[in-house]
Design brief:
This protein has 427 residues and is an alpha/beta fold. It has one domain (1-427). The protein is 54% helix and 9% strand. The strands form 2 sheets. The chain has a 4-stranded parallel sheet with strand order 2-1-3-4, sandwiched between helices. It is globular and about 60 Å long. The structure holds iron/sulfur cluster. Iron/sulfur cluster (SF4) binds at residues 82, 113, 115, 139-140, 142-143, 340, 344, 372, 374-375, 378.
C-alpha cells in the first residue's frame, strides 16, 4: 500500500498556500476579506487531513450528500468525492481537465458529471487510495453509476458501503434513513477496526449547529440593499460545507463573514465600490473553474450573486440532547434536505418553490441558471423555473450551457459575453 494515499489533497494544499500568499501579499488589507478568511481556515483543515493521512488514519471517500459529521465517530481522513475536482478546477492554473480526460479515455461518457468523473480520473491515475468508499443511493443517476466505477479501479477490494436514502421527505423516511446512517457507521467501524465514538459525533454536530446559526444570520443580512457580501461567498461557502464539516474552522469562517457583513450593513456598504445594479439568484451552481468570475460580476457589472443552490440551508439544527438515535435522525433530515439533494432527488417542486421564495424574499432582479452538462435532471427543470419566475414575480431567467468544473465546454469569455448581453436587456 502506498504511503501517500491522498495526493490530490497535497496538490490542493500547495495550491491553497500559493493562493493565500498571493492574496495576502498582493491585495490591500481591506480587500477580498471573505476570500482571505476562507483561505486561512480551509488551509488549516486540509493540512490536518494530510497530517492525519500520514499518521495512517483510514481514508474514507464519501459522497457530498452524506452529513460528513457522521464519520467523526472515527479517527479518519475524509475525501469528499464531488468536492476535490471542483476546488482544484478553481485553484490549479490548468484546472482538473486532465483527470476528466483520463476517465473519458477509458470510455466513461463525456457528458457525465465532472464532480465524480474528476475523482474517477484521479483514482485511475493512482493518486487516491481509499480504505472505504461510501455513498447514499441519491441524489442522481451520476452518483449511482459513478461510484461502482471508482471502486472498480485500484479499489477492487475496498469495501463500498451504501446508505439507502428513501424517496419521500417525511418523518417515517427520516427515521428510516437515520437508521441507515447508523448502520453505515457500524459497518465502516467493523471494516476499519474502530469502535464508533458517539461523543465525538455529538461534538462535531454541535460545531455544525453553531456554524448554521451564523449562516442563518448572514443570509438574513443579505436582504439588505446593497447586499453586504461579495458574490464570491457563494462558491466559497460550497467548499467550506464540503471540506470542513464538524470542525472549529467552519465555525470561525462563518463567524468572521458575519462580522464583515454586520459592519457593512451598519455603514450601508457593498464589498466593492460602485452601485449594486442587479441582484441575481443562481438556482443551480456557481461557476467553479474560474476563481475570478464572481469578482468580475461584482466589479464590472455591479451584479450581486445572492444565492446559488448551496447557500441557503432549508433545515434546522440537530438536537444533540436526546441521544444517539435522535442525532442520526436529525442528521438524516438535514442530509435529505441538503442543498442539491433536496432539489435533485425527488420532484422538481422543491427547486421551483425554493427559488421563487428566495427571489422574492431577497428582491432578485433576475436568475441565472448554469445548465451543467452532467446534470440531466436539473437541466430538465429550466423551462419550468423560467415560467414560474416569470408568472410569479415577473423576472427573467438566463440559462447558460456549460460545465461548471471544465473550462473547455463553454469558455469563461463566452459566458461573460452571454451575461453581459443579458444584462443589457434588463437595463
Ligand atoms: S451536479 Fe447533478 S449530476 Fe452532479 S452530483 Fe449534483 S445532482 Fe448529481
Amino acid at each position: 500500500m502506498p504511503t501517500n494515499k491522498i495526493i490530490p489533497y497535497e496538490m490542493l494544499y500547495e495550491a491553497l498556500c500559493t493562493t493565500k500568499e498571493l492574496v495576502e501579499g498582493g491585495m490591500a488589507s481591506g480587500e477580498l476579506l471573505v476570500l482571505k478568511s476562507f483561505l486561512k481556515h480551509i488551509t488549516t483543515a486540509v493540512k490536518k487531513y494530510i497530517d492525519d493521512a500520514e499518521q495512517g488514519y483510514p481514508i474514507i471517500a464519501h459522497h457530498f450528500a452524506f452529513p460528513t459529521e457522521i464519520f467523526h465517530c472515527f479517527e479518519f481522513v475524509p475525501v469528499v468525492v464531488e468536492g476535490i475536482p471542483y476546488i482544484l478546477s478553481a485553484l490549479l492554473p490548468e484546472g482538473a481537465e486532465s483527470f476528466y480526460d483520463i476517465a473519458d479515455s477509458f470510455g466513461h461518457p463525456y457528458h457525465t458529471c465532472t464532480s465524480q468523473k474528476g475523482t474517477m480520473g484521479m483514482t485511475m491515475d493512482g493518486l487516491f487510495h481509499f480504505d472505504i468508499i461510501s455513498s447514499p443511493t441519491s441524489p442522481c443517476d451520476n452518483t449511482v453509476a459513478s461510484y461502482p466505477i471508482i471502486k472498480e479501479f485500484y479499489n477492487k477490494d475496498i469495501p463500498f458501503i451504501l446508505a439507502d436514502m428513501p424517496y419521500y421527505r417525511d418523518d417515517r423516511s427520516y427515521k428510516y434513513y437515520g437508521k441507515e446512517l447508523k448502520i453505515t457507521i457500524e459497518e465502516i467501524g467493523k471494516k476499519i477496526g474502530q469502535e464508533p465514538d458517539y461523543e465525538k459525533l455529538r461534538k462535531a454536530v454541535d460545531l455544525n449547529n453553531e456554524a448554521l446559526k451564523y449562516i442563518t444570520e448572514i443570509n438574513e443580512l443579505k436582504k439588505a440593499v446593497p447586499n453586504p457580501i461579495e458574490s464570491m461567498l457563494c462558491p466559497l461557502m460550497t467548499a467550506v460545507l464540503a471540506f470542513i464539516p464538524g470542525q472549529v474552522e467552519r465555525v470561525l469562517f462563518f463567524k468572521e463573514v458575519l462580522e464583515i457583513a454586520k459592519k457593512r450593513v451598519k455603514n450601508g456598504e457593498r464589498a466593492h465600490e460602485g452601485e449594486e445594479k442587479i441582484r441575481t439568484v443562481w438556482p443551480y451552481m456557481s461557476i467553479f473553474f474560474d476563481i475570478g468570475f464572481c469578482e468580475w460580476l461584482d466589479r464590472q457589472l455591479g451584479m450581486t450573486m445572492l444565492f446559488d443552490i448551496f447557500n441557503y440551508l432549508f433545515f434546522d439544527p440537530v438536537d444533540t440532547s436526546k441521544g444517539v438515535d435522535k442525532i442520526f435522525q436529525g442528521l438524516a433530515k438535514q442530509s435529505m434536505n441538503y442543498p442539491m439533494v433536496r432539489q435533485s432527488a425527488t420532484f422538481s417542486d422543491d427547486l421551483l418553490d425554493d427559488f421563487v421564495f428566495l427571489s422574492k424574499e431577497y428582491k432578485a432582479d433576475c436568475a441565472i441558471f448554469t445548465a451543467h452538462i452532467g446534470c440531466k435532471q436539473s437541466v430538465s427543470v429550466i423551462q419550468l423555473l423560467r415560467e414560474a419566475l416569470r408568472d410569479e414575480l415577473g423576472i427573467p431567467l438566463l440559462s447558460i450551457d456549460l460545465d461548471i468544473g471544465d473550462a473547455r465546454y463553454m469558455s469563461i469569455q463566452t459566458i461573460k459575453k452571454e451575461i453581459s448581453n443579458f444584462v443589457k436587456t434588463l437595463m
